[in-house]
Amino acid sequence: MTLLLAGAIFLCKPYLYKMPQASAYLVREGDVRMLEDRYDVNDQWLARSLLGSWSDGDGRSFELYSLDSAVPALEGVKTREEFVGSLVKIGRRDREKRTAATVALLPESCVAEPKRLRQLPRQCKDLVYYPSTNNSAIAVAFLPKESETWLLALWTLAEGDDYDAKMGEFIDKFLGEELKGVSVLVHAPTPEGAKERELLRADARHSVTNHHEWHCTEGEEFTVLDNLGARRDFVTAFTNDLKTMRRRYAETMPSPLCSSNVLCVARIYSTREQYLDAVDDGMEWTAAYWSPSRRELVAHLPASGEGKLLETLRHEAFHQYLSYATAMIPASPWINEGYAQLFEDEKRCGWKPVNKEDAEALAKLLPLVFNSDYAEFYSGSDEERALKYRLAWSIAYFIENGAPKVRFAPFKDLKKRYIEVLLETQDMRVATARAFENEDKFKLFLSEWKKFWLEQ
């Protein structure tokens, strides 16, 4: 049964807790290399404990946590496997561990010394509360009658709220009435021996489990979360497309890394307002983007233009694929943005020089594009940026359609060498230089690129 508590009493809208930020490590097991993601153990515990969160338009927020696992004994950043393997369950009567977990979750304004009510609410077997020094938050740990797991409710109040009145509302209505016949889903048990991909999938699913308007669609290599309601047909189109595109990405840009532990996670909001509430800083201008630190594609579905969003997601999903293919080591923008545009929509991105003078001038700009980092690639006016994007696309298009026809196929292993050197050196400029092997082959590439586009 999903959690339907907050809407009726607190008139709140749900907001989703962001997935923990990942730190990437390139590791080797025998002859197999792979990306290993590690996360702050406290962030993992917080995300795993959170059952749901809501906010209203008046400045209040409500969060519900499960008190079923102890504060982590581990420190620093660990894989999900390491973290899950270290978890210690809290028994119903284990007051010491439960209190420690509660205190770790309390707002700063709440004192760590619990107090009891004179009378238990009718739907609770047990309850303690933690007073707020400035009356800004209500914090109550309680054991519902129909549960074996203690929960912690945190209600952050709005400025001007009467603390005693809100406490009364919380006890009488929320704990006294709304809990009747309602249960919440804590984090599902972890199958023994589960690996990183399945643990990440379980965490992604858990992030929406108690928000009834959110749905989870899963495939072998992906998990898509959405609250699109009647417009969920888009998810079917997107997931079908994603299967095809991920196969094309891998065929076009093979990775030497094992990918069995990575998962494509996408989160699609029904409105731009919700999307803007969730996006990373600096991404407010976007309709969709790949968040490397959160390991998520994030998007919203506009009132119209589902086809354009699908193209944008193809673009962003390539960024996601290449990030995993290179163990999160940033690849040069000429290959990352060039191929993302190629997969977005080959015909719409299509562009070519229209005469010999244009081709000559643009060929002289190619070395700049090849050697640019992201700050340099994104710099300049809108027109200058657009030109660099078009040139990056023209490089990718030539590698796929023109380079295989060049006599003796001198650029056959260009992409393979690039990724291998990038993994070895973690330097995008060195990877570009060594991908071409020598200056003569780079000059040949420029010459053949120009020849190809003049013939189009």
Q: How would you sum up this structure, described in words?
A:
This protein has 456 residues and is an alpha+beta fold. The chain has two domains: 5-178, no CATH class; 196-454, 3-Layer(aba) Sandwich (Glutaredoxin). 44% of the residues lie in helices and 17% in strands. The chain has helices at residues 5-10, 41-49, 80-86, 95-105, 163-178, 196-206, 233-252, 272-278, 306-325, 333-344, 346-349, 356-370, 374-378, 382-401, 414-425, 428-435, 439-454, and strands spanning 13-14, 22-29, 32-40, 50-55, 61-66, 77-78, 124-130, 137-144, 151-156, 215-218, 222-226, 264-269, 288-291, 296-300. The strands form three sheets. The protein has a six-stranded antiparallel beta sheet. It is elongated and about 85 Å long. It starts with a helix and ends with a helix. The mean pLDDT is 90.
Write down the Rg: 26 Å
Count of distinct structural domains: 2
Tell me the CATH architecture of the largest domain. 3-Layer(aba) Sandwich
Average of pLDDT:
90
Number of helices: 17
Percentage of residues in strands = 15-25%
**CATH topology description of the largest domain:** Glutaredoxin
* Secondary structure: number of strands: 14
In brief:
With 456 residues, this protein is an alpha+beta fold. The protein is built from 17 helices and 14 strands. Helix 10 crosses helix 14.
